[in-house]
Amino acid sequence: MSETTPNPAFRTQSSELIPRWMIRAILALLFSVLALVTFARVTDRPLVAVPADTPVLAERAVVLASAPNGATRVSAPDGTLLADISAREGGFISGMTRVIERQRSLSKVDPATPIAIQLRDKGRITLVDPATGWSAELASYGDTNTDTFARLLGVSTETSEGSN
């Protein structure tokens, strides 16, 4: 009979799993980024990756309210119901509602304060919470998610995309 080892070794022959040069390179990169960010903050460099502040072409104030089960109610500031979205249908709108509610709880702002859905130049849709200063460019979330808020605004982003 031949003898076999009951537990084969899966370790590499090297005593180091991560080479020392790689750890040094990662630390050098980390400290370089930290130095660049510190320099930018200390010298008050202007922000360059911020979308241009273009004129608002259309705007609608809405009140977003979420339920514990994930449903969302969208209403006008006067209380008129615009949309009652179930937990299954609400995905993106419910997620954005939770983000806004979180910002408002941190800023101690009334959750029933309206937010603004704005249509800007070239079909850009922006959510703005004037009470907290929070805003989001919806183009970065994809066309389908942008269209959900465009429908609440009463515009179609497809017709304005040709001006890109």
Describe this protein with a few key phrases.
164 residues, alpha+beta, six-stranded antiparallel beta sheet, 34% helix, extended, disordered C terminus
* Helix/strand order, N-terminal first: HEEEHEEEHH
Portion of residues in helices? 25-40%
Low-confidence stretches: 159-164
Task: Report the major sheet.
Answer: 6 strands, antiparallel
- Residue-averaged pLDDT, rounded? 82
Beta content comes to: 15-25%
| Rg calculated over all Cα atoms | 25 Å
Count of helical regions: 4
Strand order of the largest sheet: 3-2-1-4-5-6
Assign the structural class, choosing from mainly alpha, mainly beta, alpha/beta, alpha+beta, or little secondary structure.
alpha+beta
- Using DSSP, what is the number of strands? 6
Overall 3D form: extended
End-to-end span in angstroms? 77 Å
Give an account of the 3D structure:
By secondary structure, the protein is an alpha+beta fold. The protein has a domain at 56-163. 34% of the residues lie in helices and 21% in strands. It has four helices and six strands, in the order H-E-E-E-H-E-E-E-H-H. The chain has helices spanning 20-42, 91-107, 143-153, 157-160, and strands at residues 56-66, 72-75, 81-85, 115-120, 125-129, 134-137. Strands 3-2-1-4-5-6 form a six-stranded antiparallel β-sheet. The longest helix has 23 residues, at 20-42. The radius of gyration is 25 Å and the shape is extended. It starts with 19 loop residues before the first helix and ends with a helix. The model is unreliable at 159-164 (pLDDT under 50).
